[in-house]
Design goal:
The protein is mainly β. It has 3 helices and 9 strands; from the N terminus they run αβββββαβββαβ. The protein has one domain.
C-alpha cells in the first residue's frame, strides 16, 4: 500500500500526543474513532520521548508481543504491530515506564502517575485490555498519531 493510500484510510484509533514532553515520557491519549462519545479518550498512552516515530497514519496488523522471556514464554500476548517505515517491531503493548520499557513502542494504560519523581503511566494491563477489546476481531486497522501543540484544542472525534 502506497503512502498516499494509507493517508486516505479512515483511522480506527487516534493517538493525540500531548505537549507535555518530559525527559521520561511523551504522554498522549487514545480515542476510538467509532465511539458514540466524541472527544472522550478511553485510555492514555506513553512513549519514550527519545524514540517515538513521526506523526502520520499507520497500518496496524495483528501480531504477538514476545515478553521478556522470549517467544513461547509466559509473558507473551496478542497485540498489534504498527507498520512504521524503517522501524521493526513497533507494537502497542503494556508498559508503565516508557523510558526504560520501550524502544519506540506506545504503551497503553488507564492513567498518568508518578514513581520516584518520574511521570509514568499506570494500570497498563487495564488500558491495554480495553484497547484489545475495542480492536476485537480486527486483523488490521489504521491508527493516526498526531502531536498536539499547546494552543490546539482536544479533538472532537
Amino acid at each position: 500500500m502506497s503512502e498516499q493510500e494509507v493517508t486516505m484510510q479512515k483511522p480506527m484509533f487516534t493517538v493525540y500526543r500531548l505537549p507535555l514532553v518530559q525527559a521520561f515520557l511523551l504522554p498522549g491519549v487514545i480515542y476510538d474513532c467509532r465511539t458514540i462519545k466524541p472527544g472522550v479518550p478511553f485510555a492514555v498512552t506513553g512513549e519514550n520521548p527519545d524514540l517515538y516515530f513521526p506523526d502520520g497514519i499507520y497500518r496496524c496488523i495483528s501480531d504477538m508481543y514476545w515478553g521478556g522471556d522470549g517467544p513461547g514464554g509466559k509473558e507473551d500476548y496478542p497485540t498489534y504491530k504498527i507498520l512504521v517505515p524503517g522501524r521493526d517491531q513497533i507494537k502497542f503493548h503494556k508498559l508503565n515506564d516508557p523510558k526504560t520499557q520501550s524502544l519506540g513502542c506506545p504503551g497503553i494504560a488507564e492513567f498518568f502517575g508518578e514513581t520516584l519523581g518520574r511521570t509514568v503511566i499506570g494500570d497498563s494491563k487495564g488500558g491495554f485490555m480495553e484497547f484489545m477489546a475495542r480492536a476485537k476481531d480486527c486483523n488490521e486497522f489504521f491508527t493516526e498519531f498526531i502531536t498536539a501543540f499547546s494552543h490546539d484544542p482536544i479533538p472532537d472525534r
